[in-house]
C-alpha cells in the first residue's frame, strides 16, 4: 500500500471516528466507500476491525444512557442474521464487492434521509438488528437501521446503544469471517496501524459530543455517504 493511500485512510478514519464519537453514527458510511475506492480488498474486515476500539470507548463513555432492552433485542437479531451476511459475502464476486458496497451505502443514506419519525417497538428493534447483521457482515456498513430506530431518542442514548450493539456484532462478524476463511488475522494489521488516527478522532469527539448539533452532523454524514456511494458505483 502506498504512502499516499495510507495517509488518505488515516485522515478518513480520524474524521469518521470524530463524527461517530460525536453523533453516534457515520464511521462505516464514511470509511467503507473510501476504502472501497482505494482497495476493495479492505472490505469488510478493515472497517469492522477499525470500529471495535471506537465503540469500546463510546460505549464506556456513554454507559449511563444505554437502552438495555433495545440493545438486547437488536443484538439477538443481529447475531441471528450474521450467517446470512456471510452467505451474501460468499455469493458476491470479489470484483463486485465495491459495487455492492456502493449500492448498500446509497440505499442506506436514501432510506435514512426519507424515513419518517416513529416510536420504536420490539419489531423495529428486531428488524434493525437483522438488517444490520446482513449488511454489516457483508460490507461493514450497518449503522443506518440503528440510527433510524434511535434518531429521535436523546443523543447519549443513541450513541451508547448503537456503540454497544455494534461492538458485540462486529466481534461476532469478524469471528465468523475468520472461521470461514473470508477474513484472515493479517487483515487486522492496517486497523492496528491506524489506531492512533482512530484514537485521535475519538478523543476529539469528547470535546464536542455534548453540544454538537446532531441533526446537522447526521445530514452531513448521509450526504457524504450518498456522494461517496455514487462515486463507488460509477467508478466501477
Describe the structure.
The protein is mainly alpha-helical and 236 residues long. The protein has one domain (3-235). The longest helix has 25 residues, at 155-179. 77% of the residues lie in helices and 0% in strands.
Biggest β-sheet, characterized? Answer: none
Number of domains: 1
The poorly predicted ranges are none
In whole angstroms, the N-to-C terminal distance is 20 Å
Count of extended strands:
0
Give a nutshell description of this structure.
With 236 residues, this protein is mainly α. The protein has one domain (3-235).
Ordered list of secondary-structure elements with their pairings:
Layout (H helix, E strand, L loop, with lengths): L2 H21 L3 H12 L6 H17 L6 H24 L5 H18 L7 H18 L3 H8 L4 H25 L9 H5 L1 H11 L8 H22 L1
Helix pairs in contact: 1-2, 1-10, 2-5, 2-11, 3-8, 3-10, 4-6, 4-8, 5-7, 5-11, 6-7, 7-8
List keywords for this structure.
236 residues; 77% helix; single chain
Amino acid at each position: 500500500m502506498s504512502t499516499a493511500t495510507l495517509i488518505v485512510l488515516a485522515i478518513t478514519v480520524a474524521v469518521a471516528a470524530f463524527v461517530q464519537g460525536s453523533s453516534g453514527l457515520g464511521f462505516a458510511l464514511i470509511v467503507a466507500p473510501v476504502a472501497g475506492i482505494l482497495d476493495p480488498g479492505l472490505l469488510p474486515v478493515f472497517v469492522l476491525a477499525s470500529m471495535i476500539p471506537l465503540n469500546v470507548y463510546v460505549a464506556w463513555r456513554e454507559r449511563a444512557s444505554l437502552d438495555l432492552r433495545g440493545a438486547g433485542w437488536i443484538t439477538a437479531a443481529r447475531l441471528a442474521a450474521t450467517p446470512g451476511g456471510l452467505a451474501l459475502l460468499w455469493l458476491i464476486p470479489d470484483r463486485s464487492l465495491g459495487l455492492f458496497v456502493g449500492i448498500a451505502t446509497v440505499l442506506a443514506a436514501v432510506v435514512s434521509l426519507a424515513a419518517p419519525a416513529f416510536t420504536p417497538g420490539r419489531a423495529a428493534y428486531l428488524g434493525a438488528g437483522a438488517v444490520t447483521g446482513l449488511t454489516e457482515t457483508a460490507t461493514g456498513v450497518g449503522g443506518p437501521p440503528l440510527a433510524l430506530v434511535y434518531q429521535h431518542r436523546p443523543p447519549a442514548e443513541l450513541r451508547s446503544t448503537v456503540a454497544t450493539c455494534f461492538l458485540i456484532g462486529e466481534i461476532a462478524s469478524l469471528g465468523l469471517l475468520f472461521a470461514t476463511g473470508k477474513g484472515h488475522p493479517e487483515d487486522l494489521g492496517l486497523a492496528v496501524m491506524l489506531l492512533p488516527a482512530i484514537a485521535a478522532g475519538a478523543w476529539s469527539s469528547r470535546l464536542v459530543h455534548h453540544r454538537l448539533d446532531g441533526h446537522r452532523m447526521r445530514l452531513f454524514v448521509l450526504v457524504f455517504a450518498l456522494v461517496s456511494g455514487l462515486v463507488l458505483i460509477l467508478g466501477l
